[in-house]
């Protein structure tokens, strides 16, 4: 069975500094990996995904993530954080060729960007 | 891009009554939709997988008679919380698989049972 770990409950970063939100996964075979962001009282917004191809994936709002197979990681990054990036971030995984199976989510990491 | 719409966004109901939440895929057909529940400051908990034209598949511990799921068309799935109680108060989110293996989520529905 697949699983996702987000080791940090909270990440604090100063505005303008680079940010990293960590995610590691466990799945048989090559994974499908996703990052979503959730603002207060809202649903989840899709940021980016890795299915295959280039290990560095670029997504919405200047975010990117790097797939590292040897470390089974898919950390979310942004070169320069904005206060408006403050939100709850979820990493999720889906097994490959699994048809219409649901995503498995990490517990979430709350990002706080301080002006 | 693909959009998933949920309605209502907020609902308050009296204990013992039933409430229905709708999930629609607006510009794509979704043979499968997923219903999640989220408690404050926690991750999403998968409740059930909704399959068009067939019975939903419920996760362990989720009462299928309490959380009725109907997926009558390729663009609509509904979750009905029957005989609601205060402990059913939560944030419910649906999702659907769109193009290119991307899963899109609705905006969620806040249910408060008083």
Descriptive terms for the model:
heterodimer, A: 115 residues, mainly beta, 6-stranded mixed beta sheet, 4-stranded antiparallel beta sheet, globular, B: 114 residues, 7-stranded mixed beta sheet
Quick take:
The complex is a heterodimer of chains A (115) and B (114). Chain A is an all-beta fold and 115 residues long.
Sequence of secondary-structure elements of chain A: EEEEEEEEEEEE
Discrete helix count of chain B: 0
* Structural Rg of chain A: 14 Å
What is the count of DSSP helices of chain A, taking H or I runs of 4+ residues? Answer: 0
Poorly predicted regions of chain B: none
How much is the average pLDDT of chain B? 91
- Tell me the distance between the termini of chain B: 37 Å
User: How many E strands of chain A?
Assistant: 12
Explain what this protein looks like in three dimensions.
The complex is a heterodimer of chains A (115) and B (114). With 115 residues, chain A is mainly β. In chain A, 0% of the residues lie in helices and 50% in strands. Chain A contains no helices and twelve strands. In chain A, strands 2, 5, 6, 10, 11 and 12 form a six-stranded mixed sheet that branches. Chain A starts with a strand and ends with a strand. Chain B is an all-beta fold and 114 residues long. Helices cover 0% and strands 54% of the residues of chain B. Chain B is built from no helices and eleven strands. Chain B has strands at residues 4-7, 10-13, 19-25, 32-38, 44-51, 57-58, 67-73, 76-81, 90-97, 103-105, 109-113. In chain B, strands 2, 4, 5, 6, 9, 10 and 11 form a seven-stranded mixed sheet that branches. Chain B is globular and about 40 Å long. The relative contact order of chain B is 0.33. Chain A binds chain B through residues 32, 34, 36, 41-46, 49, 51, 90, 94, 100-103, 105-108, and chain B through 4, 6, 31-32, 34, 42-44, 46, 49, 91, 93, 95, 97, 100-108, 110.
